[in-house]
Amino acid sequence: MTAPNAPTPNLPAHEIVYRQIREMVLFGELAPGQPVTIQGLVAQLGTGMTPVREAIRRLTAEGALEFKGNRRVCVPDLTAQHLHELAFARVALEPHLAELAIKQATPADIDALEATDARVNAAISAGDIRSYLEQNYLFHTALYALSGADILCPMVQGLWLRVGPSLRIVCGRYGTLNLPDKHAEAIAALRAGRAADLSAAIRDDIVQGQDQIAAALAEAGGDSLA
Amino acid sequence: MTAPNAPTPNLPAHEIVYRQIREMVLFGELAPGQPVTIQGLVAQLGTGMTPVREAIRRLTAEGALEFKGNRRVCVPDLTAQHLHELAFARVALEPHLAELAIKQATPADIDALEATDARVNAAISAGDIRSYLEQNYLFHTALYALSGADILCPMVQGLWLRVGPSLRIVCGRYGTLNLPDKHAEAIAALRAGRAADLSAAIRDDIVQGQDQIAAALAEAGGDSLA
DNA sequence: CGGTCAATAATATGATCAAATTATGTCCTG
DNA sequence: CAGGACATAATTTGATCATATTATTGACCG
Lengths: 226, 226
Hints:
2 copies of one chain form a homodimer. The first copy, chain A, is an all-alpha fold.
């Protein structure tokens, strides 16, 4: 009855809408500072306004969207201070999740991560920004998910949700050439069971990426990347 | 037409409802594992169901409520692992916020904190659990707010939102006698400008509190406090 | 003990109301 | 006479509610 590509017809509409808008933010379809209107999303996604409202509330709570004063919602525009806070939180949490993951990872898990990293490199070579953002996100997310941390993983995903739009801007402006890639070191450490090395690789990856955004922001002058 | 106690008629209803439910969770009016129905809240709060739906989505995103499979929402029941994750995140973030706060705090700010701490102690002496939870939350929140960290502060508040219900259970079960109170040390360090001491005091406060919950959970046997 | 039916609660749509922003026109000033 | 600013009106947008639809739960009957 349903089309073959309807894997989860039981999923509520607000969940679908939430994921759609979330991907728009994560992979840069919505730029920082860009206003987001409920009715615009209703028209764009072809659904009622209640699911859209609920999705926006959720994303606002996660920091992916921001209440801009008078009932106006937009994608947040990061300041240097915000970037600093995000870097601190990421360095505090993500290496720890990686260390937890090392105890749970099976060889099959590591192979899957390596395959994802190959797609990351392919995207970098091809200069495909969208694909790079997706696969890079997938690499980190999949690694952390191995930790089985029910609370910390969603927290970290919230941090990525805040960094996403700015990362997109930086990639679009300076290309995918000198992007951070400590993934190979991370995978090697994961295979060898060297927790400290894995932790360091992830930390370096984070710091490099954040430094690039910070540099772009400093070059842009003001508080904004827009 | 409206009652005299309508101080903010301009605030949207979903915001009001959100804060009401949030306080219920934070201060233990809703117990862990307790199911939360939309219509129950509609009847209890005397509002429409749309604001209630939006508030529930927001709280679910923050981890204060949990989607329990079949479109059922309830207050999460912490396992030992979840408690461990929360303790890690709190220790990673809250002492840092305290250190940031020390640079911004004015004498008036510190006096206000001391007044709040006095109310914490009064609540402990009186055995008033609800007041203790409120004032203790207020003490930490106000301290961290001094840091001016727009991203980290809401993150930490999300952590408190998850701990709240369990803390209430523990207080109700074992009383307010041997609760952690490193607040005096924290205030002294804050006045003296000793960042390391302040950081240590906050960390000890967190660890003691979490250890109490962990002990209660271990005594209860299973994964649950309920 | 299993299956079916009814009741209940959540999901989702559309309509209505209120608020805000934008655009326009007029008046005042240089 | 021209340009800008303020006030007002209109359109756009968000908030809320009432209602219909659907799925799940629990009970009752075979």
